[in-house]
Amino acid sequence: MNAFLADSYLHTLDPFAIEFPRSWPIPGIRWYGLAYAFGFLLAWWMVRWVSRRSWSLIPPQSTGDLMFAVIVGALLGGRLGYAIFYEPHLFTGFTSSPPWWRLLEIHKGGMSSHGGMIGVILSCCWFGRRRKISSLHILDIGTLACTPGLFFGRVANFINAELWGKALPPDRQSYVVGQGLTGIDPPWWSIKYPQEIIEKWTVHSDPRLFEIEPLRAVVNSGENFYQDVVEAAQTGNATVVQTLRPLLTAYYPSQILQAITDGPILLGLLILIWLKPRKPGVVGGWFLIIYGVLRMATEVFRQPDEGVNPTFGLSRGQALSAIMIISGIIGLAIVIRRDVPRLGGLFSGDAKPTDQPASSTAA
Q1: Per-residue model confidence as pLDDT tens digits over 164-220
Q2: C-alpha closest to that of 196 among 181, 188, 206
Q3: Among residues 247, 268, 284, which one ends one of the domains?
Q4: Which of 188, 254, 272, 334 lies at 20 to 30 Å from 89 by C-alpha?
Q5: 311 three-state secondary structure
């Protein structure tokens, strides 16, 4: 425990929850896929739980159909959004092995939270029209139910060692390129990735490559020396870890930070907003605003996506979040002026329209 607190956390997590033999058609079950499964399961439980309470207009027997529509919308929207916003080449990438089209390689990661939200919104609207239930009311409940999925998705990003945060300032690094070891222990909450050797050092011919040359005798490596060093660090080889740890860059834990803001913090704020009766769509409007603000704030600690040019100085995630905020403000201004009654708030014990005049403009 003292070693953990003395320096950054060295990322050694395996992306596979269960690995299958090499002869099997699929390599195994990844935490990334389980994260989505857990998120959808909790969303189903939350929707079903509130549907059994009198403040939800969704019949309990319809929750399964609603969740199926939401799952399809989230997966299609998330994957298509990722391809459109970040990796357009996925549409034209084909391989000789299953699933043959890179757009379908969802098991390798690559989902856009903004695209997933668009898919969920469209699926909720479709379901509401089909079942003659207020689509805005469904969206209000959906904003609460989606927060566990947002939380688990970011945790899965961390386990996969993807979407790294920005590097800490040089005065908080144990190693500074051009200066060598600084003798400084980075804070315990920062993250060091062994994969940096391959993804950063080899790409930029980093001088730290010479620092790890003595490890060739330790890992008994040949042509795949750098990959072998990474794997040795991930399996806890003491000599490799001791040599590598002070050389690695310390990064902000942006995935964990966004997991906290997109999950429990967002959920808590939405619950506070809906403690009293609100017109359908008010909670959904506040979701767009709050999520957009939190996402823009936390993107400050996250590395911008490679190959994606900033928009007015904003990263792609910040630009999309800014659009969410504007959409939320406009939507909120519209729904609070609708001539409809308010629905019972959370734990108020009554989802039926309140007796207050429908013409009231209170949110």
Answers
A1: 999 999 999 999 988 899 989 999 999 999 999 999 999 999 999 999 999 998 987
A2: 206
A3: 247
A4: 254
A5: strand
